[in-house]
């Protein structure tokens, strides 16, 4: 039985354990097993002091960890990958890319649209073709003014009235133009007279307002002069013309009886 290697010193970091494993004479699975064993022993929790809180639970967990570590040391299948059986390769189910599905749908839509546009183009091109040659209704040598009027019996009442209004002698264009011109001239003459009357009325109203304003100013000025003259007469009659207003008030207070003061 091979001697168990001692755990490196505590000051040695776990990332440097591989430097302390014997490199000659050990296969790769054994070296891996030694490295994992040291890492497991380093990660074991410390034993709690006796009587501490939750010491029983901590000791139980440590015992389980210690047992697992011993099983790992005694059973080589945990670290020897050469003894493992090759698992059957499961074929992966390929799923289509969602982007490809989206692009395929867009391609179908565009193809349908292109097909529809081509059909429309074909229809328009068929309509663009020159139609069959038809004989003209009137010959080029015929005068349109000499053509007979349409038969009124074949027309509706409204159409017959329209025909009479357009082709009748009483409603010719010259007569209609003359009537329209006469109406416009009469309206223009009346409108000019009314505008002149309105302007004259506005002018008279403005003059009246100005005159009334001047007369009102004169009335106010005369009223102010009359009030001032009456005030002067009253002061002369009472002998208080040259006295200040405070002296007049004191004099009046002396005249009043004692009970009214």
UniProtKB/TrEMBL annotation:
Domain of life: Eukaryota
Record key words, sorted: Coiled coil
Coiled-coil regions, chain positions: 100-127
GO process terms (BP): cell division; chromosome segregation
GO cellular component assignments: MIS12/MIND type complex
InterPro entries reported in the protein's UniProt record: Dsn1/Mis13
Regions crossing the membrane: none
Listed Pfam families: MIS13
PANTHER family cross-referenced by the UniProt entry: KINETOCHORE-ASSOCIATED PROTEIN DSN1 HOMOLOG
Protein name in UniProt: Kinetochore protein mis13
Organism: Parascedosporium putredinis
